[in-house]
């Protein structure tokens, strides 16, 4: 097992966005994915593992995924990354905040944009950027191939079970919402990994009726990119429990008939 790899998942904010902290225990480098809120708790995890943040990445710029961007950038100095197609939506967090009835979070200047084919390196972590529009125009997923995932030591933080509201992230086929709690455990020879943002969930897909959404685009992203990945790819969605590409191919009601 590769003991250098650290992966902790922290459900943050009122919509329980899954914030992932990826770290290298040897180099002390870290990437934080989707710091939607609860920056103090994110900082606690970083401090416990003695990690310094190399990059802060948002899979898209809905408020529940970017609410903590400015504060985490202020505390760490790490550059902020997301896809340029979501920049305009990020500039209008006030509209999203009014829609949810919450206070508008601060924004930060973004000079670093990700695009299809880019790579993010953090010690033993190498993430490939997939542009997966549909939930938003600039939605991305981050893929870790199997050869870069061997020996993943996954540690998951859970919070008390919540009835997570669903105004921002996923469609439901059965009327239920998955719990934000997940335990991924330790793996030996680990399969590929996908951080899917709000494009794919366990049993669902991302909503397409919000800012920048498109059903045609999200189905193209799912069929052309995500379902093209190996079936054993472990998927960490932006909300709810983990799943696999094979499981969703077989059981996801939005994908089975496509």
Largest sheet: 6 strands, mixed
Dominant shape: globular
CATH architecture: 4-Layer Sandwich
Q: Kindly estimate the percentage of residues that lie in beta strands according to DSSP.
A: 25-35%
Question: How many extended strands?
Answer: 14
Task: Explain this structure.
The protein is an alpha/beta fold and 258 residues long. It has a single domain (5-159, 179-251), classed as Ribonuclease Z/Hydroxyacylglutathione hydrolase-like (Metallo-beta-lactamase, Chain A). It has helices at residues 39-48, 63-66, 69-76, 87-90, 93-100, 215-226, 245-251, and strands at 5-12, 17-24, 29-33, 52-57, 80-83, 112-114, 119-122, 125-131, 140-144, 193-197, 200-201, 204-205, 234-237, 243-244. The chain starts with a strand and ends in a 7-residue tail after the last helix.
Feature tags:
14 strands; 25% strand; single chain; 7 helices; alpha/beta; Metallo-beta-lactamase, Chain A; six-stranded mixed sheet; 258 residues
What's the short story on this structure?
With 258 residues, this protein is α/β, with parallel strands linked by helices.
